[in-house]
Amino acid sequence: MNKFKKEIFKEYEKLRTKSNEELKRRKQEIYSLLPRTKEIDKEMAKLSISISKKILSDNNGNYESFIKDLESKINTLKKEKALILTENNFTLSYIKLHHNCEKCDDTGFDKSTNKLCECFFSKLIKKTYKLSNLESVLEKENFSTFNIDLFSQKKYEDNTLSPRDNMKRILTEVESFVHSFNRGEENLLLYGTTGLGKTFICNSIAKALLSKGKIVVYHTAFRILEILENEKFNKNLENQEENKLEYYLLFNSDLLIIDDLGTEMVNSFSASELFNIINSRIIKNKSTIISTNLSPIQIKETYSDRVSSRVFGKYKMLNFYGPDLRWEK
């Protein structure tokens, strides 16, 4: 994890260097085309130095009127420069420093909170995904590679829609979820037996939102329980820093995908912590997707009423059914 952090901060340094070089190039371009702008910048620099010298040399503090006069001159020069630029079809932002992330100015620390920026976590997650080979999985399993023809057009059991028509309905729902994701108001419960495409759909959503720069965390329920147990009980863990970050992201990522709910060991601790995650994310308007082989009735029987009521009340439920596709291929 420390290795990744160092790599990311080096990337930020390169971004800042590149931004400064590009600004320098744009300024030279403007100076060459509009020489008066260079003269104005020099005049403003001299006036700023005069203000600093006056403040440092005047121990009595009798410099207020002097500074006001110089600041007025600086503002006049700024207006003249702005007019020259706009008259020659240049925006004022053209000669300002441009950053990839305006929240942190490519430092990794949010200017408003002085905490690690969202873009830092996004970069970190992409690096960990590369290490875990999930990136290669997402390249294979995404909306563009989804094959609707794998699903049967025949009526299945007592369901109104065929598995194919049902999957078309599900695709419409999840594509809408991705499209309107910034609202952060929607959660999804994907349920049905194994081999029906739930994990493929989860991967497709993850791929689409990662491509939009969102912070997506994807864990099995078993792995989430491990993270929770390590945070609560294993304070001397060797990779404690990594676990703390994973724990933080369970609550604060843009999207949390919980795969295979019900495969973990369910007890009072896991049920309580699951409720804590689900409830906290609902309060924060952070979207969550749960994928499970359990039916709604089994979810209610397996977990507490608090968990099931929050899920059934706040999640859009998408039922996957049909023949097991693993045997159909």
From TrEMBL:
Keywords: ATP-binding, Coiled coil, Nucleotide-binding. Signal peptide: none annotated. InterPro entries: IstB_ATP-bd, P-loop_NTPase. CDD domains: AAA. Residues 60-87 form a coiled coil. Residues 154-306 form the IstB-like ATP-binding domain. This is ATP-binding protein. The lineage of its organism: Bacteria, Bacillati, Bacillota, Clostridia, Helicovermis.
